[in-house]
Amino acid sequence: MSVLLGYSNGSFEDQIRISTGSTPQSVAVGDFNNDTRLDIVVGNSGSNDMSIFLGYDNGSFANQMKFSAGTMPWSLAVGDFNNDTTLDIVVTNYQSSGVGVLLRYLKMEFLQQSTLTAGNGSQPRSFVIGDFNNDYRMDVIVASSGSSSIAIFLGCGNYSFADPTQYSTGSRPISIATGDFNNDNRLDVVVANLLCGCGCVHEEEIFPPTHTHTLLFIKPL
Fold this sequence. Notes:
CATH superfamily: YVTN repeat-like/Quinoprotein amine dehydrogenase
CATH class: Mainly Beta
CATH architecture: 7 Propeller
Number of helices: 0
Mean pLDDT: 85
Number of domains: 1
Distance between the termini: 32 Å
Strand content: over 45%
């Protein structure tokens, strides 16, 4: 991976190259050891693990610590899923069609406590985390490229999740993001679909599970 430290004028230093595992696919940042310094986690799809680099004050990083991350980790994010004020990690496993929730415990150890699945062949590529039902617990929405759908897993606050609610998308959703697109103080979801040349905007109401679904077609250049 490459780290480019920024200057105050919007420019950056030359890259600092840091070795990771095999075929790094995704990256996220967070303070994993509660020292007020940002650390880096990288998902390595080729070696089926993740690398964590603890940060120092001067922009350098400690040697990587590796943890198992399931089969072909594709996308990852960090959040507190069991309300213990420490950061946990969620990772999609493209080949095994699962999503792993890895809880941090002790000082720097991670234990896989939950495996979420949207069905065989779902091939999760991307996901977002957030509080989608306003219960102050972190939820997960997964874009399942193999089943052309998104799956919403509502968090229970103790690292477990409710069974998923699924909504259809366009063909082969590969990227997903969230935001409030209609100013109703509720999180909506936008999905990019690889094979149909379109995007989907979902305006979700988690309770009851109804939604509106808008297709946005993208004209090729």
